[in-house]
Write a structure and sequence with these properties.
The protein is mainly α. The chain has three domains: 1-30; 32-94, no CATH class; 100-148, no CATH class. 70% of the residues lie in helices and 0% in strands. The chain starts with a helix and ends with a helix.
Length: 149
């Protein structure tokens, strides 16, 4: 190989790298491992989710939906696409006013039916707790129910 060919090759690689950096910044790509905006409560999460869908940031919206609802990738993708296409409402769900005994009874029914995921979702929706807090509370409720039986 001649020295001039090597010099041209180095220049071509350098120019290609510069073009790649420019292209990436022009398209405002985010790294694949970047987290979507986080929210402090489920209601705030639904608001952020609506903003992500409206701005077309579907990957971040799917990540946030999975975080908020604790579901799988396919379910989250289908739900976010339904929201984007108008087949499902976008925004925070309306809250029903339930009394404490009604809420506990609904969670107990879900635990007795061995539907722990639904019980966790219901606990998060009702109390605005984190996924871990809701999981711990539902597991404690399950242990208490098993102890009573």
């Amino acid at each position: 190989m001649s020295p001039s060919f090597l010099a041209l090759l180095v220049i071509a690689v350098f120019v290609g790298a510069l073009a790649g950096f420019w292209w990436r910044s022009a398209n405002r790509e985010r790294p694949a491992d970047a987290d979507p905006p986080t929210a402090r409560s489920p209601e705030e999460g639904e608001v952020v989710l609506a903003e992500l869908i409206e701005s077309g940031q579907m990957i971040d919206a799917i990540k946030l939906y999975r975080h908020l609802h604790g579901c799988g990738l396919k379910d989250a993708k289908d739900a976010v696409e339904a929201m984007r296409e108008g087949r499902a409402p976008v925004g925070p769900p309306e809250r029903r006013d339930l009394s404490e005994p009604e809420a506990k009874a609904a969670m107990e029914r879900a635990v007795q039916d061995n539907n722990l995921i639904q019980a966790i979702k219901f606990h998060r929706w009702l109390y605005g707790s984190s996924l871990k807090e809701a999981k711990d509370a539902v597991e404690a409720m399950r242990a208490d129910l098993l102890r009573r039986d």
